[in-house]
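Trying the structure run again after the queue cleared.
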Amino acid sequence: MSRPDAFAARLLDVSATGYAARAAEDLLRRRPELGERLGTRPFQALRDNLLGRLRDLAVAVSEGRPALFAEQVDWTRRFFEVRESSADLLEESLLCIRDVLADELPDPARTSVTTCLEEALGRLSAEAGAERRLGADDPHERLASRYLLALLEGDRLEARRLVLEAVTAGGLSVPDAVEGVCLPAQAELGRMWHLGEITVAEEHFVSATTVMLLAQLASTAQRRPPHGKTVLAAALGDDLHDIGLRAVCDLLEVDGWRVVFLGACVPVDDFVRSVDDFGADLVMLSASLLAHRKAVTAAVRAIREGHPSGEGLTILVGGPAYPCDDERAPSVPGADGCASSATRAVTLARELVLGDD
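Done. Tokens:
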């Protein structure tokens, strides 16, 4: 990261609330009808929304990757469009942010911020691409579709039977059931929720069943002998999503690791203290949204700079917020690797910690 980018990201981070407030005022001035449209506290609603945009922008600027912010804005655009909820405000809110930052930021910090905003605005003007669905050609995805359909019909027993019988019959390995069935079903579930095709209640029901199924699959697997290494894993801050990381941890346990899975929404300071508490050899951190990357970066920095075990510890990152272009050169300073899938995470862990080829 260049000095201007680091300076710009720092300014965005520490001044985000003030910038969001000014942008919200400008937006209300341009669109006075929002006072009635957004309820009793329109300024606060707009400010909070714009604050989230600025936090995402700070992450993209800090890493010098404008596409991260553009993709997050495009995701939000599709979310709003299917719910007919303020979709028309997204572009105008970005324009307000751009105007405020053009006025507030000093020259050295302005270029990288403008680049991110312009790429996001360009993405909004382009036609939205179709999101991937489960395919009919892949046998694992066909099973994932049947599993998901059974759950959306309320039949948890049938859904679990479909997958467990495929494993016990010998045609489907546990890693393939996790990687090829459970996680694609969850990805499709997320797509359906994003596009307004299912309710939050349905999403919770399917997710809870998948967590149960992952545990059952792990219990049926042939385990490797323990090798004495411990992995500590969590999703940090306000990140509520941990099913992908949970799946990785189940596969690591089958692979002979002692697994300490802390789950979602773990405070950064508590996680860092846990590294020594549990004697971790490997740390695994996931992030589901762009905004969650900040907590991961903070945790890695704290472990590396101020923790007794930090120097010899292996740290892997992953999750939807991390495009793993290069597994051995992750975008998080201080991390050793970035896993692009659950099974790849297990392989990468063995390579980095156990020295396996």
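The chain is about 65% helix and 5% strand. Worth checking whether this holds up in the mutant runs.
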